Write the structure tokens for this entry.
Amino acid sequence: MASEQETPRPCALVLFGATGDLMRRKLVPALYNLLLDEMLPQCLAIVAVTRRETDRDDLLARLREGIEQHSRRALDADVWARLESAISTVAADAESERGLVPLREHLAEIDRRCDTSGNRLFYLAVPPSAYAGIAAGLGAAGLNRPGEGGTFARIVLEKPIGRDLASAVALNHAVNAVFNEGSVYRIDHYLGKETVQNLLVFRFANAIFEPLWNHKYVDHVQITVAESIGVEGRGEYYEEAGTTRDMVQNHMFQLVCLTAMEPPASLRPDAIRNEKVKVLEALRPLEGADVAAATVRGQYAHGVIDGKEVSGYREEPGVSADSRTETYVAAELFVDNWRWAGVPFYLRAGKRMTKRVTEIALRFREVPHHLFPDAALTTNTLALRIQPEEGISIKFDAKIPGTEPRIKPVEMEFDYEGSFADGSPEAYERLISDALHGDPTLFIRGDEVEASWGWIDPLQEAWGREEPTVALPEYTAGTWGPAEAHVMLARSGRTWRRL
């Protein structure tokens, strides 16, 4: 995990996809808050790259509106004026032969004017299909090569990295042909969340928990990523992705890795990332008939969310009337190593569920001998809430006051908001800051991406062989998923947590 660092070196931050939604909703609000906290380079040039000539004033108005709507802190006119003055625009098309020459010339002028010394951070806020072409264009323009004196050229990629193992390998190869792996920063914004980073601190800075963090004491682990929203006008995208590609392969597997990994030898970036890759390599493969037994897919149907009626998935714009794309997936997986031998990890992710919540819960084994046979003992549970009510809770049994040995389950709670005065920074603030500093700890390495797709591919292949006329199980919007998911846990005498 990255530590506190000095102000990063002067740099040109080059943002491809400057007119896109990610720029307005996430990236510029993050840059604004970093500037507010004096965490940006004293000399930072922000270059907004568009494919066609764009009116700078119109773009700046849109970006200011994004800060007003999406920043965690109110707009300060003086700070915005500083940020605004750092933003320039350039029209450049990486797909044409000399398309990035205007960008190269613009950056050379910035080096002369702003003393950025050739330091470059290229952020690709564009569809993944454009990554390889932009990387090749940067290489053709000579913008991928660090200059003399320790200057840097880094590239940041948003997820998804591929849609299967073959495409991920091809994309990694295309990008690594231009940028060495140490200069490639693949973002999973979950890793920028304070509560996700706290998982490592919780595990490895507290002596009371790590001894219990294994198969001797843990019965099973549940990881939930639930959303109350639907596909929000992204029906065409979701038809291609589905929940497994959109959530499990990246966000959920990152939570699995941080929960299951061994203590790293140090906090060096590759020491941590090596341990995460070991977890992915230890995942027991699911193939053939095992896929049907250990996974459940579903689609949300018409229902009620927050008192409002909502449409079913196949009624959404851009979605096929006979779609077999999952909006919900549950899976049972095993990490086949000494620490977790025989401990099931239950994953569930879905849209249009009861509420928005992301949580990791460890349920512990029962006591070996019941001294209170007349009492219904609860299952000891340690839950780490990633969002939205960030915190940690421990559930255990306690005696009710009185002469009889009556027992009641109680919880001890820790919450971020109540314990820390300053609000947690947004994930993109941390990730942009780390990329500027050259700290890859919270970014995904190429072999990590490929290992996760290596586990997902057989599931997709098995699902692709299913009878196409058989519809996926449905679950009413506003519930916790299809009944089949509850049956999957019931076969082993377990139940999903009520959240």
In short: The first helix runs from residue 21 to 36. The first strand starts at residue 11 and ends at 16.
